[in-house]
Design a protein that fits this description.
The chain has helices at 2-33, 50-56, 70-86, 105-113, 116-120, 150-159; strands spanning 43-45, 59-65, 92-96, 130-135, 138-144. It is α/β, with parallel strands linked by helices. It folds into two domains: 1-34; 44-160, Glutaredoxin, CATH 3.40.30. The protein has a five-stranded mixed sheet with strand order 1-3-2-4-5, covered by helices on one side. The radius of gyration is 22 Å and the shape is elongated. The mean pLDDT is 83.
Length: 165
């Protein structure tokens, strides 16, 4: 009788361990899917750290993206190489805007990070990936497009004298 109880207990522990392992594996795969590769190349800040970062860094270039967005993931593959090539690691930071996808992303992005000066000119910050250029806490320029290319980014950075021609 004792052997049967011990055997049932051992089977139960094995079953629970397997279920826990499967659950952990599922969470691990989900995290890997939502992991952004850009954080291997540039620092990440949070929305709450942004104002402090802008005060500390007079000229700031902020990359906005959503981790599980296909456009962002495709762009980051080539953007990470560009960052490495142009040695921009210390000039750009990444701001994850995943929290905004619970709301209307285009409205939230524009409301939080755009200014009335740009809105009056018909320039709206509605899509990711996006690059924001700040000069002493003031938004100086931005790129916002779901089909952003390295050529467009290169022109933007050269026009704003972030990199040399």
């Amino acid at each position: 009788m004792k052997k049967k109880v011990l055997f049932v207990l051992l089977c139960l522990i094995t079953l629970l361990s397997c279920l826990y392992g499967l659950k952990w594996h599922k969470v691990y795969l989900e995290n890997e899917k939502n992991k952004t590769i850009i954080v291997d190349y540039i620092n990440e800040i949070t929305a709450s750290e942004m104002s402090h970062y802008l005060q500390e860094n007079p000229i700031s270039l902020i990359y906005l993206c959503i981790t599980n967005d296909n456009d962002c993931q495709n762009f980051e593959k080539i953007f990470s190489s560009y960052i490495k090539k142009e040695a921009l690691n210390d000039k750009i930071v990444y701001l994850n805007v995943n929290g905004l996808i619970d709301y209307d992303l285009s409205v939230s992005l524009d409301k939080l990070y755009n200014t009335s000066n740009f809105r009056n000119k018909g320039q709206y910050l509605k899509q990711v990936p996006a690059l924001l250029l700040y000069d002493h806490d003031k938004l100086k320029a931005f790129l916002s497009s779901n089909d952003l290319t390295i050529e467009i980014v290169d022109e933007f950075l050269k026009a704003n004298k972030i990199i040399e021609d």
